[in-house]
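Entry type: protein chain
Record version: 2
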Amino acid sequence: MTRGGAAGRYDESDVRVRPGKGSRPRSKRRPEHADARTAMVVGVDRGRWTCAPDDEPGVRVVAMRARELGRTPVVVGDHVDLVGDTSGADDTLARIVRVADRSSVLRRTADDTDPYERVVVANADQLVVVTALADPPPRTGFVDRCLVAAYAGGLEPVLCLTKADLADPDPFAADYAELDLPIVVTRSDQDPDPLRELLTGQVSAFIGHSGVGKSTLVNALVPDAERAVGEVSGVGKGRHTSTSAVALALPGSGWVVDTPGVRSFGLAHISPDDVVAAFGDLAAAVEDCPRGCSHLGPPADPECALDPMVEAGTLSAGRLAALRRVLTALRTPAWEV
């Protein structure tokens, strides 16, 4: 039989080709991890996440991000699912296989021109803005920027005025009276009981400039704060620094999230509408504003829908002035506050 004749009797369907390595198609199915343990992320340190299991919050489990998550961001406050060794024993490592949807986010950018948003804390109920009444003097611009971030991120803002033994809190507090946010005053010579009551049962992120007394407050609220910080420093190979947030359990119930000190608080990712949306009595009204309205009123926005509300008596002039002062923070360069 000639070669030509043999070729005529066979086609490509008769040829068996041995598959090479890696040619097997990958399944798109992902493991369900039905036995995963739910937890809250309480610390981040060099590619390791420290987590507090929901069913045993006193335990600390160190975990890595599972390969199937890719580069999914995981931050302090995130609710995650863990598999692997979740005992929390020394030299053990679990895996984070899922990250739940977030109910709130505290974001900031390095400055107002930076397009990169950084999520500082997830799922916090409150943002406690700590500012001193003296030494250093209070900075309204920074407080306003923090309020903007809270409103836009879905957190309830709380203003905490420290060092009331050095200055009268009333003049500064009056600037924020019309915004209906809790204002707590503390003194260096007294226990912060009023603040403690607001924090019970809540996840509260603390933010403030260096020297305002934030660390003093955290240490008063969490007696073993220094030891607890050490426990969330990854796998015992480092110490918590001011470059990342850390969640500390309050005695009883609740969490304090101590965020790193910031020199500036960029708001490049926030629009005026994001802020007004947090005010239930105003959100519907601004739908009648022209496109691009900054809600700052005349002369910049002569057709802003908020001004007629004052004329109609449905919005107090003081409340509108307070809101507009906060909105002005979006137009003030971060480095000036």
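Comment: The radius of gyration is 27 Å.
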